[in-house]
Amino acid sequence: DVKVTQSSRYLVKRTGEKVFLECVQDMDHENMFWYRQDPGLGLRLIYFSYDVKMKEKGDIPEGYSVSREKKERFSLILESASTNQTSMYLCAVRQGIRIGQPQHFGDGTRLSIL
Amino acid sequence: AQSVTQLDSHVSVSEGTPVLLRCNYSSSYSPSLFWYVQHPNKGLQLLLKYTSAATLVKGINGFEAEFKKSETSFHLTKPSAHMSDAAEYFCVVSADQTGANNLFFGTGTRLTVIP
User: Fold this and answer.
1) Cα gap B74→A22, rounded to integer Å
2) What SS3 class is residue B100?
3) Selection from B43, B52, B46 nearest residue B91 by Cα
4) Is the pLDDT of residue B99 over 80?
5) Three-state SS across A57-86?
6) What span, in angstroms and rounded, lies between the C-alpha atoms of A66 and B32?
7) Residues of chain B found within 8 Å of residue A104, distances taken between Cβ atoms
8) Structure confidence at residue B31 as a pLDDT band (50, 70, 90)
9) What tens digit of pLDDT does each residue of A25-69 get?
10) Are the Cβ atoms of B51 and A100 closer than 8 angstroms?
């Protein structure tokens, strides 16, 4: 299975800062995803990418952007961090788009915005 | 349309007793279904998947799930709970068409194992 590595386990930033969350896979899979996870709300999709420089909005893209310059790396950017973006952020990778293929997750980044 | 309902937000069992985590799904076509486990402050780990082969699916750590089309259910079971099974479990359904974004997550069931 693919190994998904998120650069930081815990991160503390201040309101208004530009924040970068990095995700790297050790294979060559096309599809990568960013989710946030909040108590009582489950996992919500922020953005996904199906190839280099290709991206699509998920369910809650407001306040976020993404970058995929290389196939193995997918970055989530908080343009101007706000306290309501305090959350657990999870990156996932899936090979191809055929039905039945699961996503594989990183260990998550717990982000606190003060 | 696809959706998943996990019927219990919290399940508590004694160590050594059976585990049952319930999941019902809704899907227009034959679904692909998954169970994931999440330990505290960790990502989601795939436990098992159903993709229209055998209806009884065996996963890691002694877990298994049975796909029942007539009941639209995909309940997760384990014969004997271990302390290390304490975690949050997510039932997930895959959309019936191809596409990059095709997973729908349940809201999770927190499993507590009592020594």
Assistant:
1) 34
2) coil
3) B46
4) no
5) ECCCCCCEEEEEEECCEEEEEECCCCHHHC
6) 28
7) 46
8) confident
9) 999 888 999 999 998 888 999 999 988 988 999 989 999 999 999
10) yes
| Inter-chain touch B98–A107, beta carbons under 8 Å | no
Q: Between the CA of residue A43 and those of A105, B26, B90, what are the distances in Å?
A: 12, 18, 10
Render pLDDT for A68-107 as a digit per residue (tens, 0 to 9).
Answer: 999 999 999 999 999 999 999 999 998 766 667 888 999 9
DSSP letter string, A25-47: ESS--SEEEEEEEETTTEEEEEE
How are beta strands B73-78 and B64-68 bridged, if at all?
A: antiparallel
pLDDT for B6 beyond 90: yes
Q: How many residues does this entry show for chain A? A: 114
Token couple for B12: 């508590």
C-alpha–C-alpha distance, residues A87 and A21, integer Å: 12
Nearest Cβ partner for B99 among A43, A92, A97:
A97
CA distances from A83 to A15, A106, A108 (A): 7, 23, 18
